[in-house]
């Protein structure tokens, strides 16, 4: 019988450290501030925004949202993002992705200074993740997945980790973080043949697909660790992961639920990164 491993204790432990750091910064008259930039009204962006605002409040971190219309032109968006970046009172910026199709990522990805880029959008930080250089910012969700594995003492070294999904927000960077911890990593995607055959060999299976309950027990190995990154909000407002948890629980070793899984740790990592960015701002 598998065991549910929740995100809450992991998020609580990170939050506790963040709160101490924030208190210390404030005693030195430094007031950490996060700016969230959202284009349009995507449901999963709004869910993240709500969760992030709550977490920042818990951590005593100031947080402001810049909500831009879905149809904003690329030029106007660039001007807006530059002005947020130039604001000296802002220590970290979270820009929701994916961006609308009419905005070319390549034209905007260098705008957020690497030192303020707390969710790893700027290629400088992406390359640091590739190199295993921890002076930059890894993206929050992959980092949250690693924090869960570490908190629950899951052995990573030498193990086969199969990551389903290869986006720049989750799958690809998470594969690099697992590799850094000496996992043998296999990245799967929509063109992968025989997906089930591959995932069912995984000691650690990561589902970051965006398809509700897609991973059933025939996709997993007996006794394995299953990390469900999926956030799928149904029309009725219900939240499901990419894993059918009820179906997999018996066969798995450890398995994260949704809700109360990776998502809750993501916002805690966001707060931790904001503190790191604030400390960096003192050095520059
Ligand atoms: N918990 C959290 O904090 C967060 C959760 N999420 C959630 O994680 C999930 C993934 O997010 P994200 O990476 O941004 O999503 P994307 O849509 O950007 O990427 C999905 C990936 O899954 C692959 N894929 C799609 N269908 C299949 C399939 N049938 N079989 C195998 N692979 C498939 C795609 O392949 P291809 O590249 O070939 O198209 C792609 O690489 C979503 O549910 C999202 O809401 C995201 C961010 C944070
Ligand atoms: N640049 C960028 N980075 C992201 O990480 C990113 C993004 N864009 N765009 C949108 C998606 C979606 N996403 C969510 C994370 C947490 C909750 C969430 O609901 N969290 C709840 C708990 C959920 C749970 O309990 O599992 C909370 O923290 O309280 C929702 C959605 C991040 N994303």
Please explain how this structure is put together.
With 284 residues, the protein is of the alpha/beta class. Helices cover 40% and strands 15% of the residues. The strands form three sheets. Strands 1-11-8-7-5-6 form a six-stranded parallel beta sheet. Strands 3-2-4 form a three-stranded parallel beta sheet, sandwiched between helices. Strand 5 (160-164), helix 7 and strand 6 (184-188) form a beta-alpha-beta unit. Helix 1 (8-27) packs parallel to helix 10 (262-283), helix 2 packs across helix 10 and helix 6 (140-151) crosses helix 10. The chain starts with a strand and ends with a helix. The protein binds NADPH dihydro-nicotinamide-adenine-dinucleotide phosphate and 5,10-Methenyltetrahydrofolate. This is Bifunctional protein FolD. Catalyzes the oxidation of 5,10-methylenetetrahydrofolate to 5,10-methenyltetrahydrofolate and then the hydrolysis of 5,10-methenyltetrahydrofolate to 10-formyltetrahydrofolate. It catalyses: (6R)-5,10-methenyltetrahydrofolate + H2O = (6R)-10-formyltetrahydrofolate + H(+); (6R)-5,10-methylene-5,6,7,8-tetrahydrofolate + NADP(+) = (6R)-5,10-methenyltetrahydrofolate + NADPH. Residues 139-279 form the Tetrahydrofolate dehydrogenase/cyclohydrolase NAD(P)-binding domain.
């Amino acid at each position: 019988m598998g065991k549910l491993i929740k995100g809450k204790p992991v998020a609580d432990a990170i939050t506790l450290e963040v709160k101490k750091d924030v208190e210390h910064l404030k005693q030195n008259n430094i007031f950490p501030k996060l700016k969230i930039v959202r284009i349009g009204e995507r449901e999963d962006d709004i869910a993240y925004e709500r969760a992030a605002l709550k977490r920042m409040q818990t951590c005593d971190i100031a947080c402001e949202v810049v909500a831009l219309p879905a149809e904003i032109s690329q030029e106007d968006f660039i001007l807006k993002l530059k002005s947020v970046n130039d604001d000296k009172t802002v220590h970290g910026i979270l820009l929701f992705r994916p961006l609308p199709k009419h905005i070319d990522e390549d034209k905007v990805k260098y705008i957020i200074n690497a030192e303020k880029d707390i969710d790893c959008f700027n290629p400088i930080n992406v390359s640091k993740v590739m190199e295993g250089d921890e002076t930059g910012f890894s993206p929050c969700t992959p980092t949250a997945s690693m924090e869960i594995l570490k908190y629950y003492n899951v052995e990573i070294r030498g193990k086969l980790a199969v990551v389903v999904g290869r986006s720049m927000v989750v799958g690809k960077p998470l594969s690099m973080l697992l590799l850094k911890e000496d996992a043998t990593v296999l990245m799967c995607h929509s063109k992968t043949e025989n997906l089930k055959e591959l995932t069912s060999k995984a000691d650690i299976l990561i589902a970051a697909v965006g398809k509700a309950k897609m991973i059933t027990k025939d996709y997993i190995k007996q006794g394995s660790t299953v990390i469900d990154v999926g956030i799928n909000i149904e029309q009725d407002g219900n939240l499901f992961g990419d894993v059918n948890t009820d179906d997999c629980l018996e066969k798995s070793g450890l398995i994260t639920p949704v809700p109360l899984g990776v998502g809750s740790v993501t916002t805690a990592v966001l707060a931790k990164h904001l503190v790191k960015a604030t400390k960096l701002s003192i050095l520059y």
